[in-house]
Amino acid sequence: MRVVTTGAAGFIGSTLVDRLLREGHHVLAVDDLSTGHVDNLADSASDPGLVFLEGNVIADSTRREMASFQAEVFFHLAAQMNVRHSVADPLRDAHNNVLGCLATLDSARSGKARKFVFASSGGTIYGRAKEFPIAESAQLDPHSPYGASKAAGEMYLRVFRRLYGLQTTALALGNVYGPRQDPYGEAGVVSIFASALLDGRPTTIFGNGETTRDYVYVDDVVEAFLLAAGPAGDGLRLNIGSGQETSVRTLHRMVAAAAGAPDTPTMEPPQAGELERVELDSRAAHRVLGWEPRTDLPEGIGRTVAWLRDRTAVPSIRS
Ligand SMILES: NC(=O)c1ccc[n+]([C@@H]2O[C@H](COP(=O)([O-])OP(=O)(O)OC[C@H]3O[C@@H](n4cnc5c(N)ncnc54)[C@H](O)[C@@H]3O)[C@@H](O)[C@H]2O)c1
Quick one: which of 44, 70, 52, 68 has its CA closest to 6? Predict the structure, then answer.
């Protein structure tokens, strides 16, 4: 199958591209390298099925290339994914995320693709939910421009499905973690804690440590994208999470244990706009796609810590 993957040099996108190539698909991998790194595609660089295109999905030239690739499926993961950046600069966030989704949808339409799979955000589109775990039927109530941009993207999916018969599925991802997540960014707390603890740097928890998130391992998320590439899930949003909430204090303890470091984070006052709880009900993804998370948190943390350890041991692969 021929596919377009946007955000292909990012954390989740590159893991998806590796898997697609292993399964023999032909991939147009698009990324503007705003936060992604070509190094993330190093394992697949010599694969004859890979075409890498450095470009912004909004640019005319990129849109032309995406449309003319004759892809059956588009996986749209390109986005500005930092909630705090979206609060600081909501126009820039909307430009990248709302127009980026629309431009990619339009390329899929003009290229006559069958299916469009969108990386939405279960951790932000529902805001402060009233019932847990949060089901897809919960009200959309984003508390950040980033969450609003993902909700807007989902609306455009619905419009393109209605107008042009393009099959669409939005995967509302929990807090994805695993190898390749940027340990120096502000998002991705497993990598941030693990990297600091391995280097002997201090770690900080904002708030009382009781805020919870639904952590889901990157390989499980990639599996969901592959399953969503088929006809199942058309017209739906599907939550992709572990179905378990873990407090940040517990997470720190687990990462410290895996890294063999002391569990002594500094506690700081909470940051504005933080949600107290995220726990996603992913039973619809199981029912519709046959998807379920396979990697439990201790195992996933162990793999992430092992990857960071190897990476630190070979500084030349750091970019
Ligand atoms: N990581 C998570 O926990 C999480 C949770 C929910 C949803 N998501 C979504 O999943 C997707 C992938 O996230 P990630 O964690 O891999 O982030 P990432 O920053 O590692 O990857 C995003 C990639 O998109 C590229 N990009 C950004 N804007 C672009 C544009 N306009 N044109 C072309 N390329 C562009 C970046 O260079 C980067 O490589 C994003 O859409 C994100 O919003 C991630």
Answer: 52
